[in-house]
Amino acid sequence: MDKKSRSDKSTDELKVEIVRSRERVERAVVGTLLVLLPARKKKIYIDARTGDKRKKQMLEAGFFLGALKIAATLLKPVITTFLTKKISGYVGTSRSAKN
User: Fold this and answer.
1) Which of 12, 43, 61, 75 has a C-alpha 20 to 30 A away from that of 90?
2) Residue 70 and residue 65: Cα distance in Å, rounded?
3) In sequence order, which residues have a C-beta less than 8 Å from that of residue 9 and are 6 or more positions away?
């Protein structure tokens, strides 16, 4: 039995093809490793003195908003009655003007 070579390529061409194949495999392995490595996290440093100032500002803003909410709750009935009187007065004058 005669065994023939499966390809008619020369030895140099086969060596070049093997080198290219190895390079592709190496690139795939390196790419896979880079993807699987954990991402580097950015570190942020905060100055402790500015943190106290910001906390104080946030506390003041929260207090102001809380006081504003309470004031709105207490003034809601007053505003509602005022607007009701104004609207009813406006509607009453327009009806009397049409008659």
Assistant:
1) 75
2) 9
3) 17
